[in-house]
Amino acid sequence: MIDGLTYGENDLSVEEYKILRTDAGWKPIPDEQIRKSIDACNYSITVRKQDQIIGMARCLSDDVYMTYVYDVVVHSKFRGNNIGKTMMEKVISHYKDRCDYLMQIVLLAVTSDVEPFYKTLGFKRYPNLINGSGMGMWINGKPY
Ligand SMILES: CC(C)(COP(=O)(O)OP(=O)(O)OC[C@H]1O[C@@H](n2cnc3c(N)ncnc32)[C@H](O)[C@@H]1OP(=O)(O)O)[C@@H](O)C(=O)NCCC(=O)NCCS
Predict the structure, then answer these.
(1) Edge-to-edge strands of the sheet including 104-107?
(2) pTM passes above 0.90
């Protein structure tokens, strides 16, 4: 357990995003793209210790039916302390509180090493009886 953590909502900065993205080992993207992406996402969770960013989870949702969760990162120095789980529980509670309808919360592009993390939260692996395995494509270039 780590003391002194504060959880925030919708307050992620470009610099904080870059810190976590870099720490996760993901390819850098331009600041302007980050700014626009943060502005467009309609719900996010942040975790800080004092002023230091240590976690984020971002969502795009129609608030009534489909929610996509992405950019779920806990800084490598702080992993294994239930921070990721707490962030995701806050995301799930947020939508449970505001939506009375059947809603699907979707994680796209989950790498196989992270699947056990999401399974602890109740996420089911695709494909299953209802969903295919998920599909995607990149446009305007290659990610790696
Ligand atoms: C995935 C990630 C967010 C997990 O954050 P975390 O704070 O370390 O996870 P937690 O401590 O909250 O773990 C919650 C549970 O998941 C399990 N877990 C977490 N990461 C795991 C992993 N990689 N493999 C297996 N189990 C894992 C924990 O053991 C714990 O289980 P328990 O509830 O039975 O004790 C973090 O490892 C991370 O930022 N990874 C790099 C970025 C990334 O890949 N993000 C996912 C993009 S889809």
Answers:
(1) 5-9, 43-49, 52-61, 66-74, 104-107
(2) yes
φ/ψ of residue 59, rounded to 5: -135, 145
Distance 140 CA to ligand 1 centre (A): 31
pLDDT at 109 over 90: no
Ligand 1 close to Cβ of residue 113 (< 6 A): yes
pLDDT of 80 over the 80 cut = yes
Domains belonging to the chain, first-starting first, are 5-119 (3.40.630.30)
Average pLDDT over residues 93-101: 97
Ligand 1 center–CA 5 separation, angstroms: 17
| Cα–Cα distance for residue pair 32/106, rounded to 1 Å | 26
Q: What per-residue confidence (pLDDT) applies to 1?
A: 83
